[in-house]
Design a protein that fits this description.
With 156 residues, the chain is α+β, with helices and mostly antiparallel strands. A 5-stranded mixed beta sheet has the order 1-2-5-3-4, covered by helices on one side. α2 crosses α3. The mean pLDDT is 96.
């Protein structure tokens, strides 16, 4: 099933990916009542990381911003895996973004804007959210960025 959100994804030349399989003992997303919480999503493309390393080191802030958008797309795939339809999203409540950062890198908010801007582009006002952008020493698989979402759903 696809609807307006998936049409918006396609209109931007993007494709909703298959859900990335978990790397450990967890599931990609969990529904609890009217909310879906995603696990942290890496910027995997066809099962592989396009870039690895620290932002502000091996990875530029602009590259990381694009990777954050990929993370958000992967998170939407995780949401769809438990809802069946992205048009059920009433709003994105919270985005948490983690940036594997070189010691002197302080541009985490700009990197996570990649996820926030994509969600706004795809969902309009429903994509406006609270957010945290956190610098960390390292992420799984040496990924530069990881993003998780909390979304509220429309009533069944």
């Amino acid at each position: 099933m696809s609807g307006a959100v998936e049409a918006a994804i396609a209109a931007r030349g993007l494709t909703l990916p298959d859900v990335a399989p978990p790397l450990a003992a967890y599931v990609p997303a969990v529904r609890s009542g009217a909310y879906v919480f995603t696990a942290g999503q890496l910027p995997l493309v066809e099962g592989k990381l396009p870039l690895t390393g620290k932002v502000g080191g091996e990875v530029t802030a602009e590259e990381a911003k694009e990777l954050a958008a990929t993370c958000a797309l992967n998170a939407l795939a995780a949401v769809k895996s438990v809802t069946g339809d992205l048009d059920r999203i009433a709003r994105v409540v919270k985005v948490v973004g983690y940036v594997a950062s070189a010691a002197d890198f302080t541009g985490q908010p700009g990197v996570i804007n990649g996820a926030s801007e994509l969600l706004g582009d795809l969902l309009g006002d429903k994509g406006v959210h609270a957010r945290s952008a956190v610098g960390v020493a390292v992420l799984p698989l040496d990924a530069p960025v990881e993003v998780e979402l909390q979304v509220e759903l429309t009533e069944d």
